[in-house]
Amino acid sequence: MQAKGLQPVNLGSAAPFAVLAGSDVTNTSPSSANTVITGDLGVSPGTSVTGFLPISGGPGVVHGTIYTPTEVCIATCITESSTVAAHAQASLTVAINDAAGRVGAFTHADTDQAGLTLTPGLYRAKTILLITGGNLTLSGRGVYIFQIGTGLTVGVNAQVILTNGAQAADVFWQVGTQATLNSGVIFYGNILAGSAITMGSGTTLTGRALAKTGVTFISDTVKLP
What we know:
- The protein has one domain.
- The chain is built from one helix and 24 strands.
- The longest helix is centred in the middle third of the chain and has 17 residues, at 84-100.
- It is 8% helix and 41% strand.
- It has one helix spanning 84-100; strands spanning 17-21, 24-27, 36-38, 40-43, 48-50, 61-63, 66-67, 71-73, 77-79, 107-108, 117-118, 121-125, 129-131, 136-139, 144-148, 152-154, 160-163, 171-175, 179-181, 186-193, 197-199, 204-211, 214-217, 221-223.
- Strands 1, 3, 4, 6, 7, 8, 9, 10, 12, 15, 18, 20, 22 and 24 form a 14-stranded mixed beta sheet that branches.
């Protein structure tokens, strides 16, 4: 059974961030294909942002502000102390605990979710949640919360499809450890990862990539919902 009337997870200070990491954000795109982030990018307590303008030579582009504990970057970088990303990380911890702690009726999600159509509610995978054999459809307006014990793995060219009023802002993927979105994936929702997020080449995320450790890109697109 599914939990009805779920409330969204409050992202607090993490809400403006399309990408948030604890240790580092790395873009390994070749110069011919850029990663494009629409929304803020932050790292804290780490300071490493690689492959994004204006911090390094690119080619990645951030349509927003880059925050680290030592720099704030829009068109150029200003070296100054900033706690913006640190506050966002604190909010992420609260959001992860909120999502993981939701109780009530839920639907098991321990098998490959590809080929399924799901409606708003609470879903729970004891270990890894897989979307590898095709597309997952989320149908209907409302909140979707996926509680994932360990990892999220999305296969090459798999898609999450939103229909009948489902919105990316209302989808929350609480991942115990690492989320891996392979190449060519089209994905929706807010990824709240206990460790890292890795995206393969040509993947598009409409939502947020929020991680407690690192986030890695290869010619990808992330935009706030």
